[in-house]
Amino acid sequence: MDITIIVVAYNRKESLKRILLSLNNARYDDDRVRLIISIDKSENDDILQIANDCLWDHGEKIVEMQSEHLGLHRHVIKCGDMSEKYSNIILLEDDLYVSPNFYRYSKSALSFYKLDKQIAGISLYSQKFNESAWLPFEPIKSNGDTFFMQLASSWGQVWCFEQWSDFKKWYFQNISISIDESSKLPMNIVMWPETSWKKYFMKYLVEKDKYFVYPYISHTTNFGDKGTHFKDNTDTFQVALDMTDNPIYKFYVLNESISVYDIFCENINLYKILEIIPEHLTIDIYGIKKINLFKRYILSSQILHYKVVKSFDLALRPQELNIIESLYGEKIFLYDKNEEVPAIS
User: Fold this and answer.
1) At 2, is the pLDDT very low, low, confident or very high (cuts 50, 70, 90)?
2) To the nearest whole number, what is the mean pLDDT of the chain?
3) What is the pTM of this model?
4) Which domains does the chain have, with CATH numbers?
């Protein structure tokens, strides 16, 4: 399987040097791999020099300087479109760092998930933080090396042409439609600026009921360097990298996994434990979903004025384990919306 690596760069010199060094030092199993460095137009000529001078011992290197300033949104879309020419791509922004095994994982995961219509992309980054709740996130461990999220990855992702083209068709039809409070998205995502391509991919995932594949152990980490979406450097999104020797990956399809999460980082499979059909159940353990998303039954940490059917503790991690293990307490409540309880004045 031929996979092309694309690095998205703009004006961060040290960031570009760092990711290019990690890429050259990674393992490629004797494959000849194409590297494209796509540079958005700026006044910083040093970026082009760094790209031209960097070592790449593993195949063809192409440096592309954009003829106009695109901005991150348009630049990522343009790089994603390269999948039409190169079929399979790994897209990396310049403030990332890759594990030695990122290519082997990408190749193995893409081979397994490429034809799965429920899968819209493959993440190299392992999500450890819920940005919508601004709280830690930890997926429950199931068989295999991956879990699933209705959350687009922008910190290292793999697409085949079919996955990208399905999104692009939807994108052309919906780009003129504003993403506002009526969208079934967390408010922090709704408020992201138009420089974000990812919020459109998020809406696509929700509307089309598709998912990204995520690794339990990360193959990229994010330095959070100052740039388009970070006003200052931040280490909030740094995660541990897979540094093992000769890993062998085990994959399962989405329907075989207990570790499947919606765009709010809530495990959607808890309906099986609660024995309530998904059409009647809202999972809201983080407590950030709005009332317009509530179905008849609501599993939430919010204090709501509905009848409490059951209640659970919030001591175990991951947090859904409290429900799976029937650890009863007074932190998470299963409400019946059909039976309203008056507020205490």
Assistant:
1) very high
2) 94
3) 0.94
4) 4-260 (3.90.550.10), 275-340 (no CATH)
